[in-house]
Amino acid sequence: MIHLSPCLKVPADTSISTCIQKMNESKVGSILVVGDRAEERGLLQGIFTERDVLRNFELLRSEELIEKPVRSIMTKNVQTLEISELQNAATLLLQDGFRHLPVVAGSTTPTPSSDPQRTLLGVISIRDVLRWQVEGSPFNLNPLNEGELPPTDLFIQTDDAELRAVFHSLLKTLEKAGWPFRIHHPESNRVSAPKLRVLDLDGLPAQDWKPKIIEHAGNTQNERVPLILVFDPAQHDHTTVTTLKKLEGHVGALSIFAKPVDLIGLVAVMTKAALA
């Protein structure tokens, strides 16, 4: 199963027509807008939703306007959730009537609008609230119901600074909830036997995926380590999903996430590995 984000992400200079097309193709009702300038890259700028389309319907009938950047009509004052407050996502979604809640890591450096800079880490959706009700939220559970859980070693290989920020922020939040993790990178002293590995496929040619995945996941049943694969759909052609689905049958405990990552799905995989 590939964990797809419940919301898409586009640069602020993307045309309105392209955004509508992407939303229609992906069958979603909103699209997150991030900065396209060097000083804003990766920072959440706004959200474009079906409501924005309806509110500007008459104007969008003009061919000239519909090709303008989405920043011209997006909703700019977006309700967000700090990664450190992830356990409060369900309350915010239900109380305020949102369908999607962007999760961000804030910065003390102000933007021109005097709001804190907000690096987009992922999205929480109303589906996640239902998942919590069925499976139980890891933020409300005592992992062992007795004593403390020992730290879980997690190895991550990525050149994506945003993805690293996701894991570092998420690990701090999980530790507060009683799920301690130790994160390791290739440039640090490699832990000999991690309980969980993360491999970012972006930048790797498709023909190198299988040997790289086997290298990280292990060749035999006894060697296999739970493996999380992460990729940006925008960087790969249409055969990517097919290739990944074929790999699922050849590798043991494999979880695949598209960027921006499904944070609650990621938490579920990580806490399961911690208890293994």
How would you describe this protein?
The structure is a single chain. 33% of the residues are buried. The chain has helices at 16-26, 50-55, 57-60, 63-66, 89-96, 126-135, 161-176, 209-217, 239-248, 263-275, and strands spanning 2-3, 8-11, 30-34, 44-49, 81-82, 100-110, 116-125, 152-157, 181-184, 196-200, 227-231, 254-258, 261-262. It has two domains: 2-134, CBS-domain (Roll), CATH 3.10.580.10; 138-275, Rossmann fold, CATH 3.40.50. It has ten helices and 13 strands. The radius of gyration is 20 Å and the shape is globular. Strands 1-12-11-10-8-9 form a six-stranded parallel β-sheet, with helices on both faces. The chain has a four-stranded mixed β-sheet with strand order 5-6-7-13. Residues 107-116 have low confidence and may be disordered. By secondary structure, it is α/β, with parallel strands linked by helices.
